[in-house]
Amino acid sequence: MSAVRMILLLTALLACTGALHRLDAQGQLSGRVSWRGAPAGDAVVELIPDDGAPPPAVPDTLFIDQLHLRFTPGVLGIPVGSAVEFHNSDQIMHNVFSPERRGDDFDLGTYPTGESRYHVFDRAGSFVVLCHVHPEMAAWIVVSASPWVAATDGEGRFHLTDVPPGRYRLVGWYRRRVVHDVQVRIVEGQDTLDVEMGR
To answer: Is the Cβ–Cβ distance between 124 and 143 less than 8 Å?
Structure first.
């Protein structure tokens, strides 16, 4: 068993899982998240340094399509300050809004096929995104103050870049809530680390 596995501290309330793979010389960190033994697609993971504030996040522009009466992808993990382009690929009108919770609500209006609307997420937290025209449509966005945040694919895989060695909290969001909060030590060339969520 690797030293990394031995230093993993599970929270007292939750047994959580994810998988961190080796950190290469360029700081590339890949992993896999599972929930009760199955791959956890549409989870979000973020790394938060134990020894102070993370470096400033680098804002990005990400894309969510509205297609077949769905937001695709339905989950995003983004650094604070990032913009999301909401594009309408359906042959009908769509709307994008987020209900008010802490004064961070927005409504981008209703717009036709082929058009896009943009919103900059300048506050960390989790946000639900809805459509006034089609109330069955919903997406979920986790905005992190850390630059190391990513959503998982359908197989539960994620990828983070430029991660320096050190001690971190690895926080996992799944089904719109935090279900994973463990301490990990990232070291260059570390072995795979497997932890199970939702036991």
So the answer is: yes
